[in-house]
Each structure stands twice: as structure tokens, then as C-alpha cells.
Write a structure and sequence with these properties.
The protein has 302 residues and is α+β, with helices and mostly antiparallel strands. Helix content is 18%, strand content 60%. It is globular and about 65 Å long. The model is unreliable at 12-23 (pLDDT under 50).
């Protein structure tokens, strides 16, 4: 009887000792991959946001919920430098913060074309089941040009070297990303018709850590948007907008895709350096689970 109990206890102990490394490996894999996915999305989002603003014109200062953008004062025909800071906080299964600092210089090339170069440095401290610290160095050329009087093109491409540290285990990776956006605007008698098409993609090859083998993660997203804006008196501009976004991702052999139609209507007003916008996001028309969202914004340019 005692021999049978001892045998069962030894068998249970053997199972526990065998399962412990497997659980630890799964935990490490989950933490590492969550940190890669989070920092990849944040870095690409920072470049897309900051370079998108830099290519929208010669605004000198922008301050919003994401961060700060500051540029040297220069006419449209002269070179300029700019600096940007973006910060993101995460709550939930992944918690922590990530900060990106970008520095760029650009100059006009010919008529209707500007060419620039940006460099970035990002740091993150995340809790994805384990404490993860990362730092990333990035380099990105970008260009903006007018194809016709009504159609413009903006593009950027980035190469980055992120380093990850999980406890005392350092690992590095290579990351590539790019963004392309085409936009058009046509004026009718009492209405402006505008539209945009965007494409962004990113890929990262990450080295293994411990028993976790190396793997690749990639993302692609495409968007279409069209807007009709009425030109009324006193600078009031009511508008109606339709859009569609498509995304696909691949992560260590797993893959998926997303579809997101959108509907928005609103009103904008501007006077000198002041502007006010109000928008109602009605995506609920396509997806009843989505809420109606009302946004307002007042801004001053200086």
C-alpha cells in the first residue's frame, strides 16, 4: 500500500518537473511576441503620423494627445528641420509606455517636390507577462510630390534595429516599414470633392530567445476615403465622408485579416489661425456593435 502511494507521488512529481519548463517556455514566447507586436505597431504609427504631418505643409508647431511636433521657420522654397516627440501608454494584457523621438531635415527638389530624411530613437518599458525593455534606432527617407494640379503623392520607407531585453536576456531584430499615400481634390461650384488612398506595410525578423525559435511578423493595411464638403458662408464647411480599411497580418505561421467600413459626417469652421471641427462617427451603420462617437476639436496655429 505504501509502495503504491510512493509510486504515485513520484509519478506526479515527474509530471510537474516535466511540465514546468514547457510552461516557462510558453510564458517566455508569449511575453516576447507581445512586446514585438506592440513596439512594431507603435514605431510604424509614430513614423506614419509624424512624417504625414511633416509632409502636409510648413506648419511650425503641433501639439495633440499623441505628442509634440516643432519645425524651424522657413518659406516653402527653403530647407527646414523638425523635431517630434510621441508617447503611448498601454493598459490591459500589455501595460507600460513607449516614447519615440524623431529628428528630420528636408528641402525642396524641383517644383512641387520635397525630399527629406528622418532618424528616430524609441524606448519602451512593457509588462507582457514579463518585464520587457526595448530600444530602437530608425532611419527613414521620405518624399512628397505633386503628380498633377489635383493629385499628390507622399511616401516614406524606414529601416530599424530594435533591441529587446527580457530580464537578463538581450535579443535584437531587423525591421522594415513603408507607407504610401495618394490624395486628390477637385472643386465644383459649391462643393469640394476629395479622396485618399493609403498603403502601409511592415515586417520584422526577430531572433530566438532561450527555447523560443526565431520568427517573422508582418502587417499590411490599406485604406480608401472619399469626402464631399459643402462651401457655405462664413467659412462653415459641413461634410460627409465614406471610408474603408483592410488589414492583414502574419505572425509565426498564424495569419488573419480585418475589414472596417466607416461613415462620418460633421462640420468645420476656420478663421485666420483658429479652427473648430465637430464630427459624428456613424460606423454603427455597418456594425451594430460599434457606438456612435461625437468628437470636437478647437485649434490655434502659431
Amino acid at each position: 500500500m505504501k509502495t503504491a502511494r510512493l509510486t504515485r507521488a513520484l509519478a506526479l512529481l515527474t509530471c510537474l518537473l516535466t511540465a514546468a519548463p514547457v510552461l516557462a517556455e510558453d510564458e517566455l514566447r508569449s511575453a516576447y511576441r507581445s512586446s514585438v507586436s506592440t513596439t512594431l505597431a507603435a514605431s510604424v504609427g509614430a513614423f506614419d503620423s509624424v512624417l504625414g504631418h511633416a509632409l502636409n505643409g510648413y506648419g511650425k508647431v503641433r501639439l495633440n494627445s499623441k505628442g509634440l511636433f516643432v519645425a524651424t521657420q522657413a518659406p516653402g522654397s527653403a530647407p527646414r528641420m523638425w523635431w517630434a516627440l510621441e508617447a503611448r501608454e498601454y493598459h490591459g494584457s500589455t501595460s507600460g509606455r513607449k516614447i519615440d523621438v524623431l529628428l528630420g531635415i528636408e528641402r525642396p527638389i524641383g517644383t512641387g517636390t520635397r525630399l527629406g530624411f528622418a532618424t528616430g530613437y524609441g524606448v519602451a518599458e512593457l509588462d507582457t507577462g514579463r518585464d520587457v525593455r526595448t530600444q530602437t534606432f530608425s532611419f527613414a527617407p521620405y518624399v512628397e510630390t505633386s503628380l498633377t494640379d489635383h493629385i499628390g503623392l507622399k511616401a516614406w520607407a524606414a529601416l530599424a534595429r530594435p533591441d529587446y531585453r527580457l530580464g537578463s536576456s538581450p535579443r535584437s531584430a531587423w525591421r522594415t516599414a513603408a507607407g504610401l499615400n495618394a490624395s486628390g481634390n477637385y472643386e465644383l461650384r459649391r462643393m469640394d470633392i476629395s479622396g485618399a488612398a493609403g498603403l502601409s506595410l511592415s515586417q520584422q525578423s526577430s531572433s530566438g530567445i532561450g527555447e523560443v525559435s526565431a520568427w517573422q511578423v508582418g502587417k499590411l493595411s490599406a485604406s480608401l476615403r472619399t469626402r464631399a464638403t459643402l462651401r457655405l458662408e462664413r467659412n462653415f464647411r459641413p461634410y460627409f465622408e465614406l471610408g474603408y480599411k483592410y488589414g492583414t497580418w502574419v505572425d509565426a505561421g498564424n495569419s488573419g485579416e480585418t475589414h472596417a467600413p466607416s461613415l462620418k459626417t460633421g462640420l468645420s469652421w476656420s478663421h485666420k489661425k483658429r479652427s473648430f471641427t465637430m464630427s459624428l462617427i456613424g460606423t454603427q451603420v455597418f456594425d451594430p456593435v460599434q457606438p456612435l462617437v461625437l468628437n470636437t476639436r478647437y485649434s490655434i496655429r502659431f
